[in-house]
# Entry
Amino acid sequence: MKYLVVGLGNIGREYEGTRHNIGFRVIDAFAEKQGAEWQDKRYGFVARTRVKNAELVLLKPSTYMNLSGQAVRYWSQQEKIPVERILVLVDDLSLPVGKIRMRGSGSDGGHNGLKNIASCMMTQDYARIKFGIGNEFPRGTQVDFVLGQFSDEDNKIIDEKVEYVGEMIKSFCLQGLDRTMNQYNKK
# Structure
C-alpha cells in the first residue's frame, strides 16, 4: 500500500521556523528519523520511505501554502494514491500550542492551504493531523502571529510533540484512520 503524507508550509528562508510551517517541521523530522532524503521535484520536495509493508511518499509543496492543492493533486495522481490514503499535516489556530487532533474530513476552518486542497481534490474527505499553534494575538494581527516564530517555551512543547506525530503517521499507514484517531485523539 502506498500513502501520500503532506506537510504544509511556505518555502523560503523568511518562513523557516514560523508557526504556519509546522507541517514542514514535523515532516522534516519524520523524514530524518526514517533516513529519507528530499529531492526537489515538480510542485514540491519529495522523499520516500517505508514503514513495514507501507510505502510512504512524503511531500513538502513548493507552491506556497495557498496553492498546496496543486501539489497534492499532482502527486496523488502521479503515484496513483487514492484520497483515503492521503494524510495532511497542518497548523491549527483553534488548538492550544502542542495540542494534536486527527480528523478524517471536515471544513478548512479558514486555513487557505486546506481550502486549496479541498478545491483541487474536489473533496474535504481526506485525513489531516492538526497541530495546535495557539491563538494568543491581538485582534487584527493573525497574519503576523501565524507567520511569526514560536517562543522558546513553545518550541520545547513542539519538540516533544513532533515524535508523537511521527508515531501517528506510522499508525495511520499501518492501522488506518479510525484506529489511529481512537488511539491518539484520546491522549
